[in-house]
Fold this sequence. Notes:
The protein is α+β, with helices and mostly antiparallel strands. The protein contains three helices and twelve strands, in the order ααββββββββββββα. The strands form three sheets. It has a seven-stranded antiparallel sheet with strand order 1-4-12-8-7-6-10. The protein has a three-stranded antiparallel sheet with strand order 5-11-9, with no helix packed on it.
Amino acid sequence: MSSTYQGRHYAGRHRVQRSHVRLPRALSASFVLPTTAAAALVVTATGATVAESAPLTLDLSGQQTAQVRNEQASDDAMVTDLATRRQASSMQTAALQGRVEAQQRAARDAKRKAADAAAARAKAEREGKRWVRAIRSGRITSDFGPRWGQTHDGLDFGAPTGTPLYAMSKGTVIMADYVFSFGNKVEIRYWDGTVSWYGHMSRISVFEGQTVMPGQFVGTVGNTGHSFGSHLHLEIHPSGGDNPIDPYPWLRDKGLLG
């Protein structure tokens, strides 16, 4: 082929090869690296010389530094204040709970004490209404009724001088004195209104106005007044007046004989 033949091949149909360095896909527009790292990659890829950038520094003035320190101190103080408030609140809550629990314990104790007191009163009431024997030994030596042309108004229980005598139930001593015919005499009005008379006692151990309970010691058997031997003269007056009844059935009904 002649050197002058151009044919259909002309420069416009063939692309000119250009020197081109292809960068890694990681360096596309959507990829972001720190400045220093990106420059290093560009140097590696292109072979160009790029100066390494200096680290970024924050240069604060003295006034700005003081402001930062003040803000930090304020934040620390706020944290400390909040912690102190929380601790104080917790202590107040604990103190309040302690007072509430103490009040509840006091209320329970008061309720228990009131219940115990009520039970004690009920027991004392029951105890006070018991009936016991005025004398625990001796024998009947004279009955109620006519004797030597007069009425013998009680029962006589023969017993040695000094034998103990007791209140038969809960009551009040309405007399404790010496009477000419009865000698040393004690009268007790019981809770049901009944009055007992103890005569010829050798010793009186209670006083007028005193409250006595069942079985309480009131004195001793004697031979004082119009008496012909050591004994207890016992009279029973149901309504409290001078209207004595035969003590035997009364004592029997209350289980105080035998």
